[in-house]
Design brief:
The protein is α/β, with parallel strands linked by helices. It has a single domain, classed as Endonuclease Chain A (Endonuclease, Chain A), CATH 3.30.870.10. It is built from 14 helices and 20 strands. Belongs to the phospholipase D family.
């Protein structure tokens, strides 16, 4: 029996055959189109593989950083400036920043890069004829002589017209290469960072400005790392961001070119030996828009260090404000403040804040500090304490402007030493250029002279000194500053 053919009008047998041949031609055409499409897709696939190989030819080298083991014999030393007349009954004594800068200048063989906020190494700007300015004047003299012999590059915040610029002019005339970074135009902030990179081998980073007062009249803290090219190279990348932005009319790139990138950050720190002790180290930077791929922002670094603390968080900074201090309209900014409260409550971490008090202190700080201090409650097992550090001054010393203050900017926990260049209010992490060195040596033998223990000893020396006063609800900052 012939099966039924499913179309409405059936012609003779020839018409059926015609329809059959038409369908065969249709399927052959369809098969050809599918084959051609497959061939084109295959060619496209191989092209996507070949193009990167072609563009990565030796004529166009790529600059993505490669994670390497650091075998340098790195040596770290804490350094301080102790103001004239400030005395401690403590064994926590460290080399002076003045002597450290002289050592670095004498060690320089090929290059010195300095990132700085401003330059007043002579007391010409104060009109005080202060004898203790001689240390700053010596540093300027040595840098001037060095500038004619090796490469000296200075990245400095674009100064206001009212600020003295003679130091910079002296160095430029001596052969130093200077670029001013117009932070106000770039981010509405300032270039507040303070570090040196010598021969891509030694580094200094800390709170001291290029100011004679930072050597004799202001309390400062920093760190110098010798014979550590791997760390110096990474800090050099931060300097290069300032150098790049110091070009006329330059804008912040997004993203940054790959040569500014790093593989060392809070998640993958650099592994090296510091003073013979296994250490994990990285450098952070602010603002976030200055952070190339891989770089931990300074704020995230601080939050990470606080989060990872198991026992205590000790903080010594000049200013502490959970606000955008220099922004208008006023803005609340509680990133760090909230994290401190959280670890105190959830992790029962002991929190200590040592905050400075001087003639330029903002009264707004104290309600916020009192709010933190009010958390102290032994029954609830909450341990948050705040002390105010005041540098005493003689009538003569009081005449020196912008002096006699604890200018420190560091944090130490039971695990980490953090040495930075920023005050702790929102603007410094959102708009202003700063940097920090973060060192973790918790894997070390407990008897080893690790930097975390040394920094803890500095904090406890200052905390227990007669220059520190406990803050409570009844404290009147007018009586203290």
């Amino acid at each position: 029996m012939m099966s039924e053919i499913p179309y409405e009008k059936v012609g003779d047998v020839e018409s059926v055959k015609g329809e059959y041949h038409k369908s065969q031609r249709f399927y052959r055409c369809l098969l050809f189109i599918i084959s051609l499409a497959t061939l084109l897709l295959t060619l496209l696939f191989f092209q996507t593989l070949l193009v990167p190989m072609v563009t990565s030819s030796p004529d166009k080298p790529q600059h993505m950083p490669v994670r390497e083991t650091c075998t340098d014999p790195c040596r770290i030393v804490l350094v301080e400036s102790i103001p004239e007349g400030l005395e401690f009954n403590s064994s926590a004594v460290h080399p002076s920043i003045y002597q450290t800068w002289l050592n670095l200048i004498s060690e320089t063989r090929s290059s010195l890069d300095i990132a700085s906020f401003y330059w007043t190494l002579t007391n010409k700007d104060t009109q005080t004829h202060e004898p203790t300015a001689d240390q700053g004047e010596r540093i300027l003299k040595e840098l001037t002589q060095l500038s004619g012999k090796v490469s000296v590059r200075i990245a400095v915040n674009t100064p206001k017209e009212t600020k003295p610029q003679d130091n910079i002019e002296i160095l430029k005339n001596a052969g130093a290469d200077v670029r001013t970074v117009n932070m106000r135009e770039l981010t509405s902030g300032v270039l507040h960072t303070k570090f040196w990179v010598v021969d891509k081998k030694h580094i200094y980073i800390g709170s001291a400005n290029m100011d004679w007062r930072s050597l004799t009249q202001v309390k400062e803290l920093g760190a110098v790392v010798y014979d550590c090219s791997c760390l110096a190279t990474d800090l050099g990348k931060i300097f290069e961001t300032y150098w790049y932005l110091g070009q006329s009319g330059q804008e912040i790139p997004s993203p940054w070119p790959s040569e500014f990138s790093t593989v060392y950050n809070k998640d993958t720190p650099m592994e090296l030996a510091l003073n013979g002790t296994d250490s994990r180290v990285y450098l952070s930077s602010s603002p976030p828009s200055f952070c190339a791929e891989g770089r931990t922002s300074d704020l995230q670094s601080i939050l990470s260090v606080i989060r990872d603390a198991h026992k205590f968080v000790y903080i010594a900074v000049m200013n502490y404000l959970p606000t955008m201090e220099f922004s208008y309209p006023k803005r609340y900014w509680a990133e760090i403040d909230s994290e401190l409260r959280r670890v105190a409550y959830e992790q029962r971490v002991h929190v200590r804040l040592l905050i400075s008090c001087w003639s330029a202190t903002s009264p707004t700080m104290f309600p916020f500090l009192k709010s933190l201090a009010a958390l102290q409650d032994s029954k609830a097992k909450l341990d948050v304490q705040v002390k105010i550090f005041t540098v005493p001054a003689t009538p003569h010393q009081k005449e020196i402007p912008y002096a006699r203050v604890n200018h420190n900017k560091y944090m130490v926990t039971d695990k980490v030493a953090y040495i930075g260049t920023s005050n702790w209010s929102g603007d410094y992490f959102v708009n202003t250029a700063g940097s920090a060195l973060v060192v973790n040596q918790t894997s070390a033998d407990s008897s080893a002279p690790i930097v975390q223990k040394q920094l803890q000893a500095v904090f406890e020396r200052d905390w227990d000194s007669p220059y520190s006063t406990q803050l409570n609800h009844n404290t009147n900052h007018m009586d203290m500053c």
